[in-house]
What does this fold into?
Amino acid sequence: MDILLLLAFIPAALALNLTPGADMMFCLGQGLRSGTRAAVAASAGISTGAMVHVAMAGAGLGALVATLPWLFDVIRWGGVAYLLWLAWAALRSGGMDGTDVQPLSARQAFRQGFIVNLSNPKVILFVLAFVPQFVDPTKGAVFLQFITFGAIISTGGFIVNGMVGAFSGTVGKALTGSVKFQRGIGYATAAIFTGLAARLAIMEKA
It folds into this structure.
């Protein structure tokens, strides 16, 4: 791998990681609802999902999603339905009936983060648009270069999103004694998930 391309890729990837987006908002919501441990686990799930997208793009499967609108829409609307289900679950677990918010385990948060990222077809299209700019077929296996660059993006995303989630988890823990705050957590988390669902619903392939 060309070391100059790698050095150019790292700051570009970091800039992308620091840009607020759906993954960051998801970890923020998980931190508020379930604390730091769940937020970090959700970030790990998101990064794992991103690596799956990178592997698919490197294997050429991303071109299939890019050329078949119906496949793109199937994945996208599946993600919308899942996010709306998470929003409803957040309302039911706290806020609607005045009961305490039921925190997620780390395993549950990881699974949700993984599914949310995997059900966003825009990720694989982004990988197809961004990563090939730094891939040099003359420097070795293209697939391994995709995986390397993807690992850099995923690792940076895990750190940044995990820190955001950990911060929100700390704030949430400090205010758990407030009944109003507990009730508001359910509404706030549901609003975040609903907003992410709306964002996914209105996105276009190109």
Q: What stands out?
A: The longest helix spans residues 142-174. The radius of gyration is 18 Å. Residues 3-8+26-202 form one domain.
